[in-house]
Every structure is written in C-alpha cells, then in structure tokens.
What we know:
2 helices, 2 domains, Single alpha-helices involved in coiled-coils or other helix-helix interfaces, five-stranded mixed beta sheet, alpha+beta, five-stranded antiparallel beta sheet, ATP Synthase, domain 1, single chain
Amino acid sequence: MAATLKLEIVTPEAKTYSEDVEMVTLPGVEGEMGIYPMHVPLMAQIAAGELAVRKDGRDYFLAIGEGFVEITADKVAIMTDMAIRAEQIDEAKAEEARKRAEARLAEKLDDEEAALVSAALMHSLAQLKVKRRQHR
C-alpha cells in the first residue's frame, strides 16, 4: 500500500475534511506547495485559492480561503476561513458574489471595509476557479 497523509481541514464552522490522501497541493502565500508523505515539518500561511487532493489515484479540488497549514511527515492540518468541495460550489452565486465585491471595491471604503470586501472577492474567485475546472 502506498504511503498516505492524513488531511484535515478545519473552518470556524466545523471540520470540513478528514481523510487519508496520497498528495496535497495548496496555495501558499509564497506560491503553490505540493506535499507528499514524509514531508519535512513546516508551518506556513495559505492564500485563498484552489486546493488539490490526490486520493486513490484521482484528483479532487476544493476552494479554500486564507489561513494556515501545519505539515508533518504524516499529516496536513489546514485552518482556514473557507473550504468548499468543487461539487458543492454554486457557480451562479459565486459569480454574483464576485460582481458585488468588485462593484463595492470601486466605492470609497475605509481600510477595514476594503479588507473585508477583498477577502470576499478572493473567496468568490477561488470558488469560480475550482468550479470552472470541472467544465474543462
């Protein structure tokens, strides 16, 4: 049997993912990271984007928000503000959220509002990227 990693994804709402996987590719703030079993221990900040999971030889995709990842030789623990599996993403709602956020950013906002709207925009863009991958 091939070596695996335990992937756990936790959001403020719940533990949204907990499975043994062969590989994880995630969006780090410094660039994309690929994690295999026996990875060197690491803690890193993650950016909103696409998370790819290889399980049973197949690739699965999730949209994730900003957060942190802790990596050990046999586990990847992600703490993030959003994690949605590709099949659970409503493309029309994500597109509408993107348009609302972009329109809101065009307004004069204080720093806190701008940060919140930017985060919402990043969430909707991540969802759209993951969902539109299915259409290819």
